[in-house]
Amino acid sequence: MALTARPHLRRRSKLAIVGAGAVGSTMAYAALMRGAARTVALYDINTAKVEAEALDLGHGIQFMSMAEVVGSDDIAVCAGADVVMFTAGAKQKPGQTRIDLAEATIGLVRKVLPSVVEVAPDAVFVMVTNPVDVVTYAALKISGLPPSQLFGSGTVLDSSRLRYLLAQHTGVAVQNVHAYIAGEHGDSELPLWSSASIGAIPLLDWEGRGGTGPLTATVRDEIAREVVESAYRIIEGKGATNYAVALAGSRIIEAVLKDERRVLPVSSLLDGYYGIDDVCLSVPSIVGAAGVLDRLPVPMSVDELSGLRASAAAVRDVARQFGY
C-alpha cells in the first residue's frame, strides 16, 4: 500500500539576525539549540564570514531540533521574518563605555534598518546593539515602527546576572530567585530590591539559610556593583560578551514566537510610566507575539523610583546628543 504524503502541520517560524559577529552567531547557535525557530537567517555585509557561520551551524543540525540555516550579504535573506534580532554594531573595546559606541552604531542602524523593515514589515524587532536604550530610541525614530513592535533587549541579561549572584550568595537555585534590574542597560541601572523575592520570601526579609548570611545593604551594594562591572571584566578578558547575551536573546525570541506573554525587563518606549516619558528604558514588561504588550507598574521604594528617573535622565541626555 502506497503511503500518502501528509501535510506538514508544524507552524513555520523565521528568525533573522542582523550581524554575524560574536553576539549574532552565538545567538543563532543558542536559538537553534533551544529549537526556537524553524528557519534562522544570518545577514552581514561580510560575505565570507556570514556564509561560513551559516555553514558551520548547518553542519550541526543533526544534533539539534530540525531547522534551516541560511546566511547572506543580501538583505533579502531576512524577508518574511517573524523576529529580527539586530546585533550589528561597533565592537566594544576594553575600557570603552557603551555610550562611546553610540554614534557609529546609530549611523549603522540608519543605513541598514529601513531595508530590513522593508523586507520584514510584520516582524517584531529586537535591538541588541549597545548602547541599547539609545539605539532603540533612535531605531524607533528611524523606522517609524510602533513601540510595541520594536524594543531593546534591555536588562534581560543584567537581571540574569543579578539572579546568578544572588543564587550564589544564598545557596538557592537561580530559578527560584526573582529579581529585576531596571533602567539603563549600563552604569545607571538599578536593582529593584523591594519587589525581589527568593522563593516566596521577600528578598529584604531573607535572613540566610544553610550557612549563608543575610542580604545586608552592604552585600546588596556589592552584588549590584558586580552586575554593572561584570561586562567590562568579560570584555577585558576575552574581547566580547556573547554566551549569556545570546541565551538572554533566545528567551526573548521564544517569548515572541511562542506568544508566551513572559515578563521580561526589555527596553521600550515609556509613556507615563511613573511619570517617565519619551525615553527607552528597561522595566518588567509582558512580551508576546505582538512584541511588548504591557509594562508592569512594579512597586518601588522612593530610592528606586528616584534611581529610575535618574537613569531615564541619563539615557535621554545621551539620545539628545545624537539628535534624538
From TrEMBL:
CDD domains recorded: LDH_2
Domain Lactate/malate dehydrogenase C-terminal per the UniProt entry, residue ranges: 155-316
InterPro entries, sorted: L-lactate/malate_DH (IPR001557), L-lactate_DH (IPR011304), L-lactate_DH_AS (IPR018177), Lactate/malate_DH_C (IPR022383), Lactate/malate_DH_N (IPR001236), Lactate_DH/Glyco_Ohase_4_C (IPR015955), NAD(P)-bd_dom_sf (IPR036291)
Domain of life: Bacteria
Keyword Phosphoprotein carried by entry: yes
Catalytic residues (UniProt): H185 (proton acceptor)
Modified residues (Phosphotyrosine): Y232
Residues involved in NAD(+) binding: V23, D44, K49, G89, A90, V128, T129, N130, S153
Coiled-coil regions listed: none
Chain ranges of the Lactate/malate dehydrogenase N-terminal domain: 14-152
GO molecular function term, any single one: L-lactate dehydrogenase (NAD+) activity
Subunit structure: Homotetramer.
Function: Catalyzes the conversion of lactate to pyruvate.
HAMAP family assigned: Lactate_dehydrog
Family listed: Belongs to the LDH/MDH superfamily. LDH family.
PANTHER family xref list: L-2-HYDROXYCARBOXYLATE DEHYDROGENASE (NAD(P)(+)), L-LACTATE DEHYDROGENASE
Name listed for the protein in its UniProt record: L-lactate dehydrogenase
